[in-house]
Specification:
Elements lengths: L1 E5 L11 E3 L6 H8 L3 H4 L4 H5 L7 E5 L12 E6 L2 E6 L15 E3 L3 E8 L3 E4 L12 E6 L4 E6 L5 H20 L3 E3 L22 H11 L4 E4 L15 E4 L4 H8 L9 E5 L5 E5 L10 H12 L4 E6 L7 H15 L10 H8 L1 H21 L3 E5 L6 H13 L6 H13 L5 H4 L11 H15 L8 H10 L13 H8 L2 E3 L2 E2 L28 H5 L31 E6 L2 E4 L25 E2 L37 H4 L4 H6 L5 H6 L7
Parallel strand pairs: 15-17, 16-17, 16-20
Antiparallel strand pairs: 1-10, 2-11, 3-4, 4-5, 5-6, 7-8, 7-9, 9-10, 12-13, 14-15, 18-19, 20-21, 21-22
Helix pairs in contact: 6-7, 8-9, 10-11, 10-14, 11-12, 11-14, 14-15
Protein name: Myotubularin-related protein 11 isoform X4
Pfam families: 3-PAP (PF12578), Myotub-related (PF06602)
Family: Belongs to the protein-tyrosine phosphatase family. Non-receptor class myotubularin subfamily.
């Protein structure tokens, strides 16, 4: 008999949109221990069985009822080869939102599994570990800070408690070894036709990129097709923006002098005329000819006489730092955290997570000043160009223009700067078990949440939307966060003809021509949430009139003026330093140190560019703060803990937020305040 303590939070149906390769049964012993007998699945309630999708196999379950936290929440615990879910009695998935359930835990999202018997017997269950006793309850800790607590009652159900627990252990072990996911059709998702247009442009066609270029008003740029077959870099999108006068042959040669072939390309064109670029580190071991050097310089300058090269990783944590801080934060927020109440805040500071949020906001604030204060080319340079370049570029756009703060604008921003730009979601979020795990994207969402708290009237989307996106990052039901590179995503996307049809899973060629078939994306919120829930994605405090377009420099010509001719600067460690030249190969082909490119003049240093008249050279004069530019606070208590996200697994939070009836929980499972 089962009762569950379920921490509410916006879920999008963990793993309901994809099929793993079927689990390989390990013989009769495994079947006996996990209850994976085929006939038993037919004994399940019809509502439960009808919730399974093609390719999903029910491995074990435990029905029943027992009093849990008030109110009682009876139901059935089910383990499949995709997920673990608790289904309350009388509840079934809506056909209108087939991916929606707050009770699902994808196997890849389970961070910690514990079996409990009595008051003192607690066993941490790792993949492959045997269960030493029949559990009275199990605790499933999600890597997204959620908690599912299920209690079993004595009375003939002990074998089922043992079976379902062992099934979860075995399924996790099998799932950790599976690296190839295949999309499955959703019979309810297509509804009318397979030509449904994605709610957000996926930027997988040249037409999408051209439309976005025109939307930004980037007249000096064009869409390059040089990487259409991914022969320049598989981590780059098939299309990207390069200066209009640069030939594709020059692009091909120039990109070869950058780490992983990720050469300079436009990230965003500011309405006032500045251009924000991003690129990988210089491949200094290469030996470019003069034509290649000129092409590289031309692409970095982007038609501007004033160029600032930003060392992205300076003053920011390493990937290992981010991962360690996130692990410490998750451990601190566990219900059984050993940190005493009076020492909890100091323990929180000890995780360094808030320090890293603070560092990202501070650097993004400085870069936004560089972009908006003068007409110039600002180049974000990171060795891999796939982590902090995306984080800083996204934050700069959020700080600089109101369009990025709308719901559609923000989703388009994430699709362009993270998904299309090749952020390795699968690796960074730990789905593959690689050692390079580091939740940089989740760090970015925390930064956005801080901005939302400080400027609530400037954002059209709400905290609930950010929380839904946070949880979606660990849900492998769409291709949005399911791959590390656009090439991998495009290869998998070639399997989709529509929402209701799928090709042979062995097919691996990208679609022919310039078209990409429609596919399920994380932005299809209507498949996960009902209309009332989606309505709460909108911020009720948003005031469109609070951030008018009248600040644009076309109406205030004095806002942006060119800098001195051929000014080249390095922005590093809070300082602007003049450079001899942009390219390191001019003086020394084997140049490896950035500092050796500096001129022997003092750097223009500041605590923050925004604090000392933008931190710019005195001969440029002071610049007025442009209306519409947000400069966040990042000192002391100005950076807060995202409680609704990180503390939802704690029992005191759960107990204070239980709804008054099961019906209210079923109607609004995700929007609880605390």
């Amino acid at each position: 008999m089962v009762a569950a303590e379920v921490i509410p939070g916006p879920r999008i149906g963990e793993a309901w949109g994809l099929t793993l390769h079927p689990l390989q049964h390990s013989g009769p012993k495994f079947v006996q221990r996990t209850g994976m007998l085929e006939p038993r699945s037919r004994q399940l309630d019809g509502h439960v069985a009808s919730g399974c999708l093609p390719g999903e196999q029910i491995l074990a379950w435990a029905p029943g009822v027992r009093k849990g936290l008030e109110p009682e929440l009876p139901g059935t615990l089910i383990c499949t080869n995709l997920r673990v879910t608790f289904q309350p009695c009388g509840w079934q998935r809506s056909q209108e939102t087939p991916l929606s359930s707050e009770y699902d835990f994808a196997l890849v999202n389970i961070g910690r599994l514990e079996a409990v018997s009595g008051l003192s017997r607690v066993q941490l269950l790792r993949p492959g570990s045997p269960l030493k006793f029949i559990p009275e309850e199990i605790l499933i800790h999600g890597r997204d800070f959620r908690l599912l607590r299920v209690a079993f009652e004595a009375g003939g159900l002990e074998p089922q408690a043992f079976q379902v627990t062992m099934a979860i252990v075995q399924a996790r072990a099998q799932n950790s070894q599976v690296q190839q996911y295949a999309g499955i059709p959703l019979s309810k998702a297509g509804q009318s036709s397979g030509s449904r247009k994605p709610p957000v442009p996926l930027l997988e066609t040249s037409e999408d990129w051209e439309a976005e270029r025109k939307k930004q008003g980037a007249r000096g740029w064009r869409v390059s097709t040089v990487n259409e077959r991914f022969d320049i870099a598989t981590s780059l999108p098939r299309y990207f923006w390069v200066p209009k006068r640069t030939l594709d042959s020059e692009v091909r040669r120039a990109f070869g002098h950058f780490h992983q072939g990720r050469g300079p390309r436009l990230s965003w064109h500011h309405p006032g005329g500045s251009d924000l670029l991003r690129c990988g580190g210089f491949y200094t071991a290469s030996d470019p000819n003069k034509e290649d050097i000129r092409a590289v310089e031309s692409m970095l300058q982007a038609g501007h006489s004033d160029v600032v090269l930003v060392d992205t990783v300076d003053e920011l944590p390493s990937l290992a730092d981010v991962q360690l801080a996130h692990l410490r934060l998750r451990a601190l927020c566990l219900p059984d955290s050993s940190a005493a109440e009076e020492k909890w805040l100091s323990a929180l500071e000890g995780t360094r997570w808030l320090d890293y949020v603070r560092s990202c906001l501070r650097k993004a604030s400085d870069i936004s000043v560089l972009v908006t204060s003068r007409v110039r080319s600002v180049v974000l340079q990171e060795r891999g160009d796939r982590d902090f370049n995306g984080l800083l570029s996204s934050l700069v756009q959020l700080l600089s223009v109101p369009e990025a703060r709308t719901l559609l604008g923000f989703q388009s921003l994430v699709q362009r700067e993270w998904v299309a730009a090749g952020h390795p979601f699968l690796t960074r979020l730990g789905v593959t078990g690689a050692s390079e795990e580091a939740p940089v994207f989740l760090l970015f969402l925390d930064c956005v949440w801080q901005l939302l708290q400080q400027f609530p009237a400037e954002f059209e989307f709400s905290e609930f939307f950010l929380l839904a996106l946070h949880d979606s990052a660990r849900v492998p039901d769409t291709l949005t966060f399911l791959r590390d590179t656009p090439w991998e995503r495009g290869k998998q996307g070639g399997q989709f003809n529509s929402y209701t049809q799928i090709y042979n899973p062995g097919y691996c060629q990208p679609p022919a021509g310039n078209s990409v078939n429609s596919q399920l994306s994380v932005w299809d919120w209507d498949l996960r949430y009902n209309s009332e829930q989606i309505l709460q994605f909108h911020n009720p405090g948003y005031d469109p009139e609070h951030c008018p377009d009248s600040w644009l420099p076309r109406q205030q010509p004095s806002f942006m003026v060119p800098g001195p001719p051929s000014a080249v600067w390095l922005f590093s460690r809070g300082a602007l330093t003049p450079l001899n030249q942009l390219c390191p190969w001019r003086d020394n082909p084997s140049l490896l140190a950035v500092s050796s490119r500096w001129l022997p003049r003092a750097a223009i240093s500041s605590e923050s560019l925004a604090d000392q008249e933008w931190g710019l050279p005195s001969h440029w004069g002071a610049c007025p703060l442009p209306p519409g530019l947000l400069l966040p606070g990042y000192l002391g208590p100005q950076i807060r803990l995202w409680r609704r996200c990180y503390l939802r697994g704690r029992p005191e939070v759960q107990a204070s937020q239980l709804p008054q009836s099961l019906a209210s929980r079923m109607s609004y499972p995700i929007f609880r305040s605390f």
